[in-house]
Amino acid sequence: MAGPLVCFILRLIASDINNPRESLKTTAIVLEWTLRFIPSFCLGKGLLYTINANFFELLEQQPLDTWSPAIALYEVIFLGCECVVYVALTVLIDIVSGKPSTSILLKKVTDCLTFRWLCVNKKAVAAAHALLSANDDEDVIVENERVRIGKANDDLIVLNALSKQYPNGKKGVEFMSLGIPAGQCFGLLGINGAGKTSTMAMLTAEFPPSSGDATLAGYSVSNEPDKTRRTIGYCPQFDAHFACMTGAEHVELYAVIKGVRSDKLKEVVAAKLNEVGLSEFDGNRLSSGYSGGMKRKLSVAIATIGSPRIVFLDEPSTGMRHSFFLGFVWSSLIHSLMSL
Question: Does the pTM of the predicted model rise above 0.70?
Answer without folding.
Answer: no
